[in-house]
């Protein structure tokens, strides 16, 4: 968020609550470079933080009341007495107030650490529901703000612990069974790096990812096709992976070491394809991290495209706009790209030399127009800092 943005949010807070905020905190959205559908198989992911995110202006209240408002949900503020409130409290809220369950869940879970009431106003430049993780950004901005306001310096510094609290808020207060990737990325990422995260152990490592220095641009292309995780595709894939792991006698597909031997033991061709994707995708994450550690960012493209083909043909979750975007980008000279997220809609990422970015964008836009599709939206993704307090405006 710019200095101007901080000033605007501070003014909006003062207008809304008739007092000045004690500070403004920011938590970024994320994009996952590679490692798709590996998280729930106890595998590896490699996200980085975006420059865009959710900002929270906040001030303590001494009456134990939590007041939540968002500039993106102007007529749906929520006021809740924290004492005795739990997940069922949010369950009773009206549909338009449901957004507040994310920050309320975080505050409720932080009660036992000594957090009390607060007034919070959110602003965001992150599209919601586009797979850039606005929900984790909302949780993490709240978590850091409340910890720092209440002097919980130890907890604020334990970013991995804070990520687990934010994840629990989404699991228990929103009812979304998400993994730990989004919250870890928002809290642990640093500028110019991706985060190699082991979803089994929760351990992570910073991996250098210098795109501008290598004259590379990573474009996020919102294909505008809706992603509905509720149509059962996501749950079915998870169940298939669990069934395959059980048949193979391993705790998770992460543990498959000999791929041909594992495939031989599976009679169902569908399960064989799923295993093929998950096992090779984990290796692609390792290979990607290896290239990045060697400073070979320009070689990433082939791994991204290999991931896309695997998601399209083995995991079978791509969608026509995603395939069109990748095919068009490659023909226009991009280095590689892949679909991201749950599948069946949402965004794709495209890696291209900076000098070719405009040609690639134009080619994609033209291809959409030719087919009568809604214009795609482009976001330039630069590895940015994780959640932090912003300097006063
Ligand atoms: P994603 O995390 O990919 O953006 P989710 O469905 O997980 O998609 O989370 C989106 C939800 O998060 C929104 O529907 C809304 O409830 C909440 N949300 C995100 N950002 C804001 C915001 N700035 N103000 C209010 N609610 C927000
Ligand atoms: Mg989310």
From TrEMBL:
SUPFAM superfamilies: GHMP Kinase, C-terminal domain, Ribosomal protein S5 domain 2-like. Coiled coil: none annotated. It comes from the Bacteria. The keyword Kinase applies. InterPro entries: Galactokinase (IPR000705), Galactokinase_CS (IPR019741), GalKase_N (IPR019539), GHMP_kinase_C_dom (IPR013750), GHMP_kinase_C_sf (IPR036554), GHMP_kinase_N_dom (IPR006204), GHMP_knse_ATP-bd_CS (IPR006203), Mevalonate/galactokinase (IPR006206). It is an enzyme of class 2 (transferase). Its EC number is 2.7.1.6. One of its GO terms (molecular function) is galactokinase activity. Residues 104-188 form the GHMP kinase N-terminal domain. The keyword Kinase applies. Residues 291-369 form the GHMP kinase C-terminal domain. Residues 12-60 form the Galactokinase N-terminal domain. Keywords: ATP-binding, Carbohydrate metabolism, Galactose metabolism, Kinase, Nucleotide-binding, Transferase. Belongs to the GHMP kinase family. GalK subfamily. NCBIfam families: gal_kin. This is Galactokinase. The lineage of its organism: Bacteria, Bacillati, Actinomycetota, Actinomycetes, Streptosporangiales.
